[in-house]
Amino acid sequence: MGKLVIANWKMHPRTEREAVRLARAEDVPGVVVAAPFPYLAGIGKALRQASLGAQDVSPTDARTGPMTGEVSGAMLSSLGVRYVLIGHSERRNPLSGKGESDSVIAAKVCAALDARITPVLCVGEPWNIRQRGFASSRAYVKKQVVAGFAKCGGRNLRCLVAYEPIWAISTLARRRIATPEEAAAMGSYLLAQLEALSGTRKGAVLYGGSVSVANAAAFLMRPEFSGVLVGGASLDAPGLRRIARAAADSKSR
Ligand code: PGA
């Protein structure tokens, strides 16, 4: 089986018409289009080969009580959403005004699983932790993984983990990226953590952080990674299709 490419469009594009056009251009096997909520229905109808993804899910559902403005797993599932990003650093960050806690993130993982949607738990250390060395970075992401899966029991096997070092996200212009070796060292550590949590070797880790047409193959080649999470570069359809071709050529573990 080839590896997975998740296109994290973040808050783009500006209109539904552009979103559907972009989705059609990225509609190839092995791709997950993780689009903003308002576009999911339209894109879901347009996709034939790629899968539909969301960028967030409510930790609660309608049975828990009223919750203005939230979008439940059941709603996403009814639109054909198969994957959902959870705990992205841009949502964990208190400066973003969201500041999602580990406990909210753990509840979101359960909510997605309950709706039969694959959670993609995003973890990664900030630069000030990285500067203290690899051991500090490992301890930081381990805490995120353990906390993120704290409420879902053995069901973490049905989840993906995306390692996205915060210092390497959205840096294409600044050129500070993690090398495939640096990323793979953490990938291997995370796989060991997942194995320890579940007692099997089935965990899957993706890499994200300034993945581009130029560097994607180097990350996809690493046996530690089952795919890549692509932000900025996913808005360029021809480039994303090239990344998807590299992913299709790389074998999963
Ligand atoms: P980037 O974003 O590829 O633009 O660095 C990745 C992400 O935030 O998921």
Architecture overview:
This protein has 253 residues and is of the alpha/beta class. Helices cover 38% and strands 15% of the residues. The chain has an eight-stranded parallel β-barrel, surrounded by five helices. Helix 7 (134-148) packs across helix 8 (180-198). It is globular and about 45 Å long. The structure holds 2-phosphoglycolic acid. 2-phosphoglycolic acid is lined by residues 8, 164, 169-170, 208-211, 229-233.
In summary, what is this structure?
By secondary structure, the chain is of the alpha/beta class. The chain has helices at 16-25, 40-46, 73-78, 89-92, 102-114, 127-130, 134-148, 180-198, 216-220, 237-249; strands at 4-8, 31-35, 51-54, 81-86, 118-123, 160-163, 205-208, 227-230. The structure holds 2-phosphoglycolic acid.
Q: Which key features would you list for this structure?
A:
alpha/beta; 8-stranded parallel barrel; globular; binds 2-phosphoglycolic acid; single chain; 253 residues; 38% helix
How would the blueprint of this fold be written?
Elements: E1 4-8, H1 16-25, E2 31-35, H2 40-46, E3 51-54, H3 73-78, E4 81-86, H4 89-92, H5 102-114, E5 118-123, H6 127-130, H7 134-148, E6 160-163, H8 180-198, E7 205-208, H9 216-220, E8 227-230, H10 237-249
Helix pairs in contact: 7-8
Bound molecules: 2-phosphoglycolic acid (PGA).
